[in-house]
Structures are given as structure tokens and as C-alpha cells.
From TrEMBL:
Organism annotation: Eptatretus burgeri
The protein, known as: Phosphatidylinositol glycan anchor biosynthesis class C
Keywords: GPI-anchor biosynthesis, Membrane, Transmembrane, Transmembrane helix
Pathway it works in: Glycolipid biosynthesis; glycosylphosphatidylinositol-anchor biosynthesis
PANTHER family with a match to the protein in the record: PHOSPHATIDYLINOSITOL GLYCAN, CLASS C, PHOSPHATIDYLINOSITOL N-ACETYLGLUCOSAMINYLTRANSFERASE SUBUNIT C
Length: 285
């Protein structure tokens, strides 16, 4: 019977390796195999979130140029939010409502309180960044939106994922852009739209993806078409760049990931592997 003893003389040199040492060598034991179309399907979450950021920036730009009236954006986004709320409730079947104990009246009160406070604070938010140059505002907005996309929860169990940080960075970017609009009503509309797009929409997005794969695929195509069409009307060069970027995200990068699986080589054997355990209970006690 083999014994693994470190401090004991065995009559063999320290660098001795038995002939059957590598007989139990195993490769790629727990490696996950990816299929191309499943990766393409999962990349739709990235496409949708990138589309959400593009739609938000486009709405800000249209209000900045006077093409889009704040009342139009507010009424349309609010109507879509109520539609999404009803759809979420139908898909959920009332399970979440029964667990939380919240009623529709309580949800309506929360919405009214949020709208009231946001509308009341709009004049303050409008003048919040008056002393900061516009170039600095645009730079901060770009950095925050990139951070929002980086830390967003796409469904992967990774340390970099932080839904709270991602949402806060998106809202900070919305405040920065809203402060450069014409008046408090524009500021109120853009911040409300940002909350609906970055806070409420991801909840419905996850529910729809879990409920129906076809619905998730159609939403991905819809976001891509809307973004490319809107950019084509504003800046055709940006629309061409968006097409290339969406093609890379949806088809080329998934293909690259699948091809890289051929070079995966994890080995497992009879040696003692170092394992880092994130359990501090023994240390604390």
C-alpha cells in the first residue's frame, strides 16, 4: 500500500519517480465543451446590452439636437415600462409577488415616489456639473458606460461581475449627460429613461431568456436592427462600424472561443494539487 510521507527516510533519492507514477494521469477532466451555436446564442446578452447603451446615447443625442421632444421619450418609455411590468408578472406567474408580499398598489406608490423625487431634483441635477468642462463630462461618460458594460452580469459566474457597480456607473453616466441638456425637463426624462433601461430592463431580459430561447434570439436581432437603423439615420459611418462590431461579437468571437478549445490541456494526476479554499470559518474560530 502506497504511503505519502514527506519526512521519513525511504532509502530512495529525493528525485526518485516510480515507473507507474503517470499511469493515473488524466487530461481535461472537468473541461466544458462548447458548441458554436450555443455560444452564439449566449453572446446575444452582450449584443442586447451594447444595444441598450447605444439606444441611450442616441436618445440623449436626439434630445440634445432638439430632434426628440422630452414628452415623447417620457410617454413612450413609460408605456413600454408598464408593458414590461405586466409581461414580467405574467411570466413569473405571481411567484415573486407572493414571496415578497408586495402588491401592485405598493409598486405603483414606489413608481410615483421615484418620479416625484427625480422631478424635484432635476433642477439640481441640471446644474450639478456646471463647473466641469463638457470634454471632461464626455470623457467621464465614456469611461462609465464602458465600466457598465465590463461589470454587467451577463450570466457568467466570475469575480469581475458586479451588478450594483454596473448599474451605478450607468446612472452616473446618465446624470453627466443629462446635465448638458437644455432644461430640467430634459434632465428628468433622460434619468428616468436610464433607470428604466439599465435597472428594469435587465430583470425582464433574464426572465425572457429563461422562459423562451426563441424570444431571446428575436430580441437580439431586434436590438441589432434598431441600433443599426438608428445609427444609419444619424451617422452612416457609425452604422457601418456597429455592423462590424456586432458581427465580431455574435459570430467571429464565438468561433474563436470554440477553436481555442482544441488547445485546452488541463492535467490531473497522483500528485497533491494546491487548492485555495475561500472558507475562513476555521481561522475565525
Amino acid at each position: 500500500m502506497a504511503r505519502k510521507v514527506l519526512y521519513e527516510r525511504s532509502g530512495l533519492p529525493d528525485n526518485h519517480v516510480s515507473r507507474n507514477f503517470l499511469e493515473t494521469l488524466r487530461r481535461n477532466v472537468r473541461v466544458r465543451k462548447y458548441s458554436y451555436w450555443s455560444v452564439v446564442y449566449e453572446s446575444g446578452v452582450v449584443t442586447q446590452q451594447l444595444g441598450s447603451v447605444c439606444i441611450f446615447v442616441l436618445c440623449w443625442w436626439l434630445m440634445e439636437t432638439g430632434t426628440l421632444v422630452p414628452s415623447q421619450l417620457f410617454t413612450s418609455s413609460l408605456a413600454l415600462s408598464f408593458l414590461g411590468y405586466y409581461l414580467y408578472d405574467v411570466i413569473d406567474g405571481g411567484t415573486g409577488r407572493r414571496c415578497s408580499g408586495r402588491t401592485r398598489l405598493a409598486d405603483l406608490k414606489s413608481v410615483l415616489i421615484f418620479l416625484s423625487f427625480t422631478y424635484g431634483l432635476s433642477p439640481l441635477l441640471k446644474t450639478l456639473t456646471e463647473t466641469i468642462s463638457t470634454d471632461t463630462i464626455y470623457a467621464m461618460t465614456t469611461f462609465m458606460l464602458l465600466g457598465h458594460l465590463l461589470f454587467f452580469d451577463y450570466g457568467a459566474n466570475a469575480a469581475i461581475v458586479s451588478s450594483g457597480l454596473s448599474l451605478n456607473m450607468a446612472l452616473f453616466a446618465s446624470v453627466c449627460l443629462a446635465s448638458r441638456l437644455a432644461g430640467p425637463l430634459h434632465t428628468f426624462t433622460l434619468i428616468t429613461f436610464a433607470c428604466e433601461l439599465f435597472a428594469l430592463w435587465p430583470l425582464l431580459q433574464k426572465k425572457l431568456k429563461k422562459q423562451s430561447t426563441g424570444c431571446h434570439g428575436m430580441l437580439t436581432v431586434l436590438f441589432a436592427v434598431v441600433v443599426v437603423t438608428a445609427l444609419a439615420m444619424v451617422a452612416p459611418a457609425c452604422a457601418a462600424l456597429a455592423i462590424v462590431l456586432l458581427f465580431l461579437l455574435s459570430f467571429l468571437i464565438p468561433l474563436w472561443l470554440v477553436k481555442l478549445q482544441l488547445y485546452k490541456d488541463n492535467i490531473h494526476g497522483p500528485w497533491d494539487e494546491a487548492e485555495i479554499k475561500d472558507d475562513l470559518s476555521g481561522v475565525l474560530h
